[in-house]
Specification:
single chain, alpha+beta, four-stranded antiparallel β-sheet, three-stranded antiparallel β-sheet, 5 helices, 20% strand, globular
Length: 195
């Protein structure tokens, strides 16, 4: 089972302490990420099933991507970027929070079009934390962005969105994922939270 960090109202760390408590996953499990309270035991959509298959069969190696460079503790994920956002406009926007050491706007391998997300590495972890706290929900090129940690290298068991995993998502897609910054786990109403 995954371990969770509590972060609810009043600093509560246990679901039994406060019904409004929220939980963030320390390790990634595809089925639990698809559950609003982290208690599901069966995949509920094809993407979750695909992520579970990748996870159990070891089909994804987060450190096997040769394009990944830099210190994961100084790197943030920037998502929901406009398709018109360029490396220059993103660099200008993210430089407000610290000295950017490396920036990678992820592009489609065939068309070269932006995939809508990027990884930004800062010189220090302090600058990265500043960007994590202050850049979240800011506007770049008319799009409200989200900022999160570089979970690909930091969260054990991580499966990316393209393989059915990930966190967040939009309601319209029918593939919401929980346990992250945008959608933390909610305390279960009728059963105890797995430990």
């Amino acid at each position: 089972m995954s371990k969770y960090r509590g972060g609810g109202i009043g600093g509560s760390s246990h679901a039994s302490d406060n019904i409004n408590a929220v939980f963030y996953a320390d390790t990634y499990h595809p089925i639990q990420a698809g559950s609003i309270d982290g208690t599901d035991i069966l995949p509920h959509d094809n993407a979750t099933y695909r992520a579970l298959l990748c996870s159990t069969a070891g089909l994804y190696d987060p450190n096997g991507d040769p394009k990944i460079i830099g210190d994961p503790y100084c790197t943030i994920f920037v998502g929901r970027l406009s398709p018109y956002t360029t490396e220059d406009s993103l660099l200008k926007a993210m430089s407000r929070y610290g000295r950017v050491k490396n920036l990678r706007l992820v592009r489609h391998i065939v068309t070269g079009a932006s995939c809508g997300y990027a990884f930004v590495e800062y010189e220090t972890e302090r600058e990265m934390r500043h960007a994590y706290e202050d850049a979240h929900h800011t506007i770049i090129d008319d799009s409200e962005i989200i900022v999160d940690y570089n979970r690909q290298q930091l969260m054990p068991g991580w499966i990316p969105r393209r393989l059915g995993g990930g966190l967040g998502g939009r309601k319209e897609s029918g593939q919401l994922r929980f346990g992250g910054r945008e959608r933390p786990f909610r305390a279960p109403l009728y059963r105890s939270f797995p430990v």
